[in-house]
Amino acid sequence: MSESTTEDVARRRAAGTFVLCAAWLLALLVVSVVLLHLAPGEHAPVLRAAFQLVLTFAGFYWIAARRMRDLRPLSAVGLVRRPTMWREMGLGVALGWAVAVALVLPALLSGNLHTLLSFDGNHGFQSAESVVLELILAVLTPMIFQGLVFRSLVRSTNATLAVVSVALVSGALMLFTPGHDTGMALFAAVASLIFSVVALRTRAIWMAMGVLAGWGLALNVILGVGSFFWPTVSGLVTSYVTGPRWLTGSVFGPEASMWGLVILVGALVAALRLTRDYAWHYSHDPIVAAGYAMKVEPPQEHARMEEAMAQKAVPLVQIQPAVTTPPPV
Questions:
Q1: SS3 88
Q2: 41-50 as b/e, with b when 16 or more CB fall inside 10 Å?
Q3: How many other C-beta atoms can be found within 10 angstroms of the C-beta atom of residue 169?
Q4: DSSP assignment, residue 146?
Q5: How many other β-carbons are positioned within 10 Å of the β-carbon of residue 58?
Q6: Exposure string for 298-318, b = 16+ CB within 10 A, e = fewer
């Protein structure tokens, strides 16, 4: 089989994997609609997110085990077990935390960040539930957009097209959500570039998970700022933002501001620098030896010489023991 034919087969197999993953996600979407009506209203977001995480992981693991023969299922899903995974996640948390703080900085410095603290048992339970929800989404979102689907799309097309496609899908999902506009869709598309780039350069989703966890927990739970980019949470801290939308985002949240896009560009540059060493170690495909099996026949003259030597009689030499003369008496 020629090299081009082998590559074509691999691309078609990756494209089939992508189709299977997309079908599984569509099925999960239908299940989520059913859960929306069955789950209790107060705890519905957490229960629905947890159920989606379990089903997404189970489906992708099963598909990877049968379609990705060169990778372990966990690695294909994006959960690559290696010594640097905790450090990657820690760097992601730091980057996400920095993004959240930078987003609210204009509102904080201009006096447009208004905070209300509620220290009671009910709000404490809601805050704990919000933390659980943010952590679940921090694992679920990269698993869907930068896990097996993204890897199979890269293999079936190329890395650039895969990154752009995920960004367009993320922006389209936000654009067609009721109450959202073009600015919000643009923010979602640029944000997805960060997650896709770190997943592409590290060949895992640990850092993307860290970015989402640090970002969501710092902005929603600790600062208590509402956002269109994250689910509505409530807890001990509740904040709202006023001022011009281009600077603070106003009632839409800091991600809806032009300042938010500037922060995302800076975060993308930071992500490229943070993943420089990982890209060197993890983003290069291993060199696989290739060639054709071949058997070199010996020359005809050499074959004739071997045949003649085999047919030639070899004289046998028998060695007799030496006869010794007994010494005289």
A1: helix
A2: eeeebbebbe
A3: 15
A4: S
A5: 11
A6: eeeeeeeeeeeeeeeeeeeee
- Enter the tokens of residue 96: 């996400």
* Lookup: tokens for 152: 């199979």
Those residues with Cβ within 8 angstroms of residue 307's Cβ, 6 or more apart along the chain or in another chain: none
Query: How does pLDDT run across 111-121, given as a tens digit for each residue?
Result: 888 888 877 76
Q: Is residue 69 part of a domain?
A: no
- Which two tokens mark 83? 């010594």
Burial class of residue 196 in the structure, from the number of CB atoms within 10 Å of its CB (0-12 exposed, 13-18 middle, 19+ buried):
buried
What amino acid occupies position 139? V
- DSSP type of residue 228: S
Percentage of residues of the chain with pLDDT beyond 90 = 43
Q: At what angle do helices 148-156 and 182-202 cross, to 10 degrees?
A: 80
User: 116 - beta bridge partners?
Assistant: 238
Question: What's the start-to-end Cα distance of the chain, in Å?
Answer: 89
Q: How many domains does the chain have?
A: 1
Q: ∠ CA 154-192-249 to the nearest 5 degrees? A: 170
Q: Which of 49, 193, 13 is nearest to 130 (CA)?
A: 49
Residue with tokens 């698993």: 143
Read off the pLDDT of each residue in 81-107 and give the average, rounded to a whole number. Answer: 93
- Strand intervals (E) in the chain: 113-117, 237-241
Pairing of strands 237-241, 113-117: antiparallel
| DSSP three-state, residue 196 | helix
- What's the burial of 293, exposed, middle or buried (CB within 10 Å: 0-12/13-18/19+)? exposed
The Cβ-side half-sphere exposure at 118, using a 13 Å CA radius, reads: 16
Say how many C-beta atoms besides its own lie within 10 A of residue 108's C-beta: 17
Domain contains 217 = yes
Model pLDDT for residues 162-185, shown as the tens digit of each residue:
999 999 999 998 888 887 888 889
Is there a domain that residue 317 lies in? Answer: no
Domain membership of residue 312 (yes or no) is no
- Structural domain including 176 reads 84-282
